[in-house]
Amino acid sequence: MVFAAAPAMAEPFRIIGFGDSLMAGYQLAPGESFPEQLEKALAARGHEVTVTNAGVSGDTTSGGLSRLDWSVPDGTDLVILELGANDMLRGLSPSATEKNLEAMITRLKERGVNILLVGMYAAPNLGPDYQEAFNAIYPRLAEKHDLPLVPFFLEGVAGNAAMQLDDRMHPNAQGVALMVENVLPAVEPLVAKERTDM
């Protein structure tokens, strides 16, 4: 029996969702987390991708920096960097948050890994000074390092009870679906560009 040689298959585009409980899928059923829903959405658009969930509930930018190297394996094409919400909820210094995020960005760029930066807004009860300092972190880093930016991960979800769990902080499955819809316009060109460059 003669077998025809199988055509070489391209490796799937490898994405790591690196973040906190918003990425991890806090209290969601299997298949409902952001990385899982994003992978399905990209596949439905014809992209061969894997989206690995490297979200850790409760993680801060300091924790993320300490686990970055082993959480993002060699061969990763894109990291969706989503950290800082827990820094904000704990009232940690925005300058420390920015320093940690910048260190992660620098380390990933040194490894040749593309980055999509996902931002967060400070809660109003922290006061206008903290809000102003925290909210400026993500646009400033995106501009400084020439990164694509999703300004607010919870756009359309924060403050919308229909999109949230009972804790009124974390998204439910419908909320995650909206987050995926919001992030897709930033992710899809990065996947497509990488494919055309290969």
UniProtKB/TrEMBL annotation:
Q: Which organism is it from?
A: Chelativorans petroleitrophicus
Its name, as the record gives it, is Arylesterase
The molecular function GO annotations come to: phosphatidylcholine lysophospholipase activity
The residue ranges of the SGNH hydrolase-type esterase domain are 18-177
Question: Pfam families attached here?
Answer: Lipase_GDSL_2 (PF13472)
Q: Which CDD domains does this chain map to?
A: Lysophospholipase_L1_like
Superkingdom of source: Bacteria
Q: Which InterPro entries match?
A: Ester_Hydrolysis_Enzymes, SGNH_hydro, SGNH_hydro_sf
